[in-house]
Amino acid sequence: MIIARFCSNGQYYKTVYGLAQWDYGQTLQVYGLQVPDQAEVHLTEEFGSLAFTAPGIQQKDGSIAIEIPDILLQSGKNIIAHIYVCNDEQGETLRTILMPVKKRAKPENYDRTGLTPMQEILDELRCRADDINLQDDVLQLMSGGQAIGSRIRLPIREREIEMQKTSVAIEWRYTDSNQWNRLIALDDIRGPEGETPEFEIRDGHLYAIYQK
């Protein structure tokens, strides 16, 4: 367990130690903050590409607990946690925590998966995405009624989005923006024998259609 304590003097940024490469099952415990129940914690690699959103679980002692994904401790890169709250009108990063990771050799008996949580879910669901859900300004790809891929929070209500399929991914963007963002790679939703589905939008839902 890694503990971060914030004082009442408005301290915004904190560095806490105690993580080592190839650790697993680690939890970040944060004290000294008054946050709403819907607080999120964005966990990212420092100078890396992996990023995850985890709930901040309220504890009886007033702290919040955040589970650190095992995959973030495999590269040896430092981890940054952004404690974030949002509502229909605004989002705000309350505090930022840097967790240096001490690099070391991989243990011989290390048996944790090398897959990201999203890849594990996709494997379990046989890599089939069949719907997309937009609720409370959060866009989520679905498969068999279960969420897969990254959640995308839309910061402003009533902004339209459009989607396109490239040779490697499904991408989305706001209609008033030129920047395309990756939603999910096509390799992650290929059907049997590498089949790529056709996509169709009906009644506000995106359907992935696989040939029989």
Relevant terms:
single chain, 212 residues, mainly beta, Immunoglobulin-like, five-stranded mixed sheet, four-stranded mixed sheet, 1 helix, globular
What does this structure look like?
This protein has one helix at 117-124, and strands at 2-5, 13-15, 19-20, 27-31, 40-45, 51-55, 57-58, 64-67, 79-86, 91-99, 101-102, 131-135, 138-143, 146-153, 161-165, 169-174, 181-185, 198-202, 205-209. The chain is mostly beta strands and 212 residues long. It folds into two domains: 2-102, Immunoglobulin-like (Sandwich), CATH 2.60.40; 117-209, no CATH class. A five-stranded mixed beta sheet has the order 2-10-9-5-6, with no helix packed on it. The chain has a four-stranded mixed beta sheet with strand order 1-4-8-7, with no helix packed on it. The model has no long low-confidence stretch (mean pLDDT 79).
Which helices and strands occur, and which strands form pairs?
Blueprint: E1 2-5, E2 13-15, E3 19-20, E4 27-31, E5 40-45, E6 51-55, E7 57-58, E8 64-67, E9 79-86, E10 91-99, E11 101-102, H1 117-124, E12 131-135, E13 138-143, E14 146-153, E15 161-165, E16 169-174, E17 181-185, E18 198-202, E19 205-209
Number of helices: 1
Write down the overall mean pLDDT: 79
**CATH topology type of the largest domain:** Immunoglobulin-like
Radius of gyration of CA atoms, rounded to a whole number: 19 Å
Q: SS-based structural class?
A: mainly beta
Q: How big a fraction of the residues is strand? A: 35-45%
Summarize the model shown.
The chain is mainly beta.
